[in-house]
Amino acid sequence: MSQARTLTFSIFRYDPQESGDKPKMVTYSLTEAPGMTVFIALNQLRETQDPSLQFDFVCRAGICGSCAMVINGFPTLACRTLTANYPDGHIKLMPLPGFDLIGDLSVNTGKFMRELSERLSLWLHPNSADNDIHRIEAPMSPEEATKLYELERCVECGVCVSACATKQMRDTFVGAVGMMKIARFELDSRDTRTADDFYHVIGNQDGVFGCMTLLGCQDTCPKDLPHMQQIAYLRRKMASV
Amino acid sequence: MAANSLQTKVDRAVNTDKGFAHPLWAARADKLQSLSGVLLGLFLVMHLHFESSILFGKEAFYQVAQFLEGGIFSETGHGYPLVTKIFSCFMLLILLIHAVFALRRFPTQLGQWRALRNQMRFLPHEDTKIWFWQMITGFLLFFLVPTHLFTMITNPEIGPHLSAERVYHLNAWALYILLLPVVAVHAVFGLYRVVVKWGLVEQRFAMLKFAKVLLVYLMVLGVASLLTYIFIGRSLALPVVPYVSML
Prior knowledge:
The structure holds two protein chains of two kinds. In chain A, helix 3 (142-152) runs antiparallel to helix 6 (175-187). In chain A, the strands form two sheets. Chain A has a five-stranded mixed sheet with strand order 2-1-5-3-4. The longest helix of chain A is centred in the C-terminal third of the chain and has 13 residues, at 175-187. Chain A has two domains: 6-106, Beta-grasp domain (Ubiquitin-like (UB roll)), CATH 3.10.20; 108-130 and 139-239, Orthogonal Bundle (Fumarate Reductase Iron-sulfur Protein, Chain B, domain 2), CATH 1.10.1060. Chain A is built from nine helices and seven strands; from the N terminus they run E-E-H-E-E-E-E-E-H-H-H-H-H-H-H-H. Chain A is of the alpha+beta class. Chain A starts with 5 loop residues before the first strand and ends with a helix. By secondary structure, chain B is an all-alpha fold. The chains are: A alpha+beta, B mainly alpha. Chains A and B meet through helix 5 and helix 9 of A and helix 2, helix 5, helix 6 and helix 8 of B.
């Protein structure tokens, strides 16, 4: 039987709450286990070596989007990244750029997503005149529902935002997550907003016309959402308004 | 109705920003940038093919040049250099349109430039790198292409001997050796990016591979014809006499 590898983790450490603390990289060693993910490794490090290590997680299965971080220069979910993917056993972990740092690997994506949601009105706008709750709802075609579910798979992990150089250069840019959600409501037959209404929200330099098609979102999205096609669809739609 | 007109007034008061920041211009700017870029890119591909007809000999290039200068409309069969002049002016106009709209993509503040460089170091990513080079080559072309166009506007004579004279004796090779790689990279990746940007093709990676093959092909074509002009130029005695058709 082959000997288990020893992994070397180089982890960004900084606690903004602690006065006098300076950002630094700290190295940890850990014995690899079969099927180990970066998320499992981080939990073991916290349990056995350093209880002060900060990182986010909830579901450990790529559903909650909490554990996004930059792993060896690639932003992705820690729970979906096997340590076996790194043959030399060196793993460098950095927090997602473009968000407020809570501490170490933990960033405040929630604050960003909430502000984005409020700014772009990312909720269903049904016909307000039709408020008879006894009326049977109009059925949605399975094709339409499938399309919506495809876009609903977004877990708001923030990877697309951190992988977008446009967003890093222009802080007010809505990013792929904002456009994905707009496209989701644009496709929804229950939403009464017209293309014209959406144009007012994303038909500008902070929206779809500010996107420079760098495709960082497309190449890093851990849920493999079709950002490239979706943004192109919105761009064509908005350009014809 | 009253509420509507009030809303319009409010909108007008709020939307006071002039220029391309206005929402209507956002869509127009994106469309015009892409459209002018496609025109310039396709023109470059044709241009390189036409001028590389020198690879098939002086006669081939002579015939191509006379045809494009409208030789079939003249009694002598000779084209009009004025056509080149007018066409160069037209391309300069398209170039200006493209430059004006592409300029809004440039990082205008040092902070933006730093953010971009930081991001590229932090997360190496191919398409971001492609755009970065698109921007650098675009900046260089802003100086190189007008230089080329102004020589074609002021001195539009084209022919196997006259062009070779320009390249070799008047030292245009120095410009072309810079212009060729810069414009080829900018045009090929620009066309790839337009196709992806507007979602005209789903197979992005196949498209990217095609763009790289096209780039190599255009470079080989360009370098080969540039060398041919240099060789022809070296063999010409001064003062240069225009080529006379053998047909």
